[in-house]
Amino acid sequence: MTAQGTNRDAWKRAASEAAASLVEDGMLVGLGTGSTAAFFIRALAKRMQEGLHIAGTISSSLASQELAQSFGIPVTTFEANPTLDLYIDGADEIDPQLNLIKGGGGALLREKIVASASRRFVVVADHLKLVERLGQSFALPIEVVPFATPLVKRQLTDLGANVQLRSKGETPFITDNQNMILDCTFAQGISDPAALDERLHHIVGIVETGLFLGMARQVLIGGPNGVQTLP
């Protein structure tokens, strides 16, 4: 691992530990997906070993649920608990308005479901995830029904996107929902995320987009000078 990679892990870990301190006894907690979320799950497990008692967790991916269960973190369902107190997850990009691109781990649909069911959504990330405009350095993931993928890809190209079908080795990447992911890059980034998101939701075959607009309440940013809280 490079020195920068080692530093980024340390920054993510610090932000995740700060997020774990927000969890209180009796809370229902949403668990995100990806490397940063894994740091949070480990930090939450440590707090529980120190005496924290939570009511349960709901994960945005099977991988996160399995990791949580491996640490003895209690798991629940939306049938039993339709509202969560707190959702902690990472992000691939964060703009000054706290709008996000998420879905680098392929769990964007479930992440958005968990976020929408939570009273408070807190993002943890390292400072390199902060951008002035979404979409300039990270592709926008879009979850698509497999049957419609060729049709959706053509319409996304007409919108000016460079579209790539996400793969895993030699085969297409398949989400936990048995869908595919189209990763879209825009030459100048995304100038109007809300307008683009609205247009995308009118394309038949798109299940959900990786644009998380107006959903994050707070962002904890790890960096060389410690953990910064936004706003």
TrEMBL record:
<comment type="subunit">
    <text>Homodimer.</text>
</comment>
<dbReference type="InterPro" id="IPR004788">
    <property type="entry name" value="Ribose5P_isomerase_type_A"/>
</dbReference>
<dbReference type="InterPro" id="IPR020672">
    <property type="entry name" value="Ribose5P_isomerase_typA_subgr"/>
</dbReference>
<feature type="binding site">
    <location>
        <begin position="102"/>
        <end position="105"/>
    </location>
    <ligand>
        <name>substrate</name>
    </ligand>
</feature>
<comment type="pathway">
    <text>Carbohydrate degradation; pentose phosphate pathway; D-ribose 5-phosphate from D-ribulose 5-phosphate (non-oxidative stage): step 1/1.</text>
</comment>
<dbReference type="GO" id="GO:0009052">
    <property type="term" value="P:pentose-phosphate shunt, non-oxidative branch"/>
</dbReference>
<comment type="function">
    <text>Catalyzes the reversible conversion of ribose-5-phosphate to ribulose 5-phosphate.</text>
</comment>
<dbReference type="GO" id="GO:0005829">
    <property type="term" value="C:cytosol"/>
</dbReference>
<feature type="active site" description="Proton acceptor">
    <location>
        <position position="111"/>
    </location>
</feature>
<feature type="binding site">
    <location>
        <begin position="33"/>
        <end position="36"/>
    </location>
    <ligand>
        <name>substrate</name>
    </ligand>
</feature>
<comment type="similarity">
    <text>Belongs to the ribose 5-phosphate isomerase family.</text>
</comment>
<dbReference type="Pfam" id="PF06026">
    <property type="entry name" value="Rib_5-P_isom_A"/>
</dbReference>
<dbReference type="InterPro" id="IPR037171">
    <property type="entry name" value="NagB/RpiA_transferase-like"/>
</dbReference>
<dbReference type="GO" id="GO:0006014">
    <property type="term" value="P:D-ribose metabolic process"/>
</dbReference>
<protein>
    <recommendedName>
        <fullName>Ribose-5-phosphate isomerase A</fullName>
        <ecNumber>5.3.1.6</ecNumber>
    </recommendedName>
</protein>
<keyword id="KW-0413">Isomerase</keyword>
<dbReference type="GO" id="GO:0004751">
    <property type="term" value="F:ribose-5-phosphate isomerase activity"/>
</dbReference>
<feature type="binding site">
    <location>
        <position position="129"/>
    </location>
    <ligand>
        <name>substrate</name>
    </ligand>
</feature>
<feature type="binding site">
    <location>
        <begin position="89"/>
        <end position="92"/>
    </location>
    <ligand>
        <name>substrate</name>
    </ligand>
</feature>
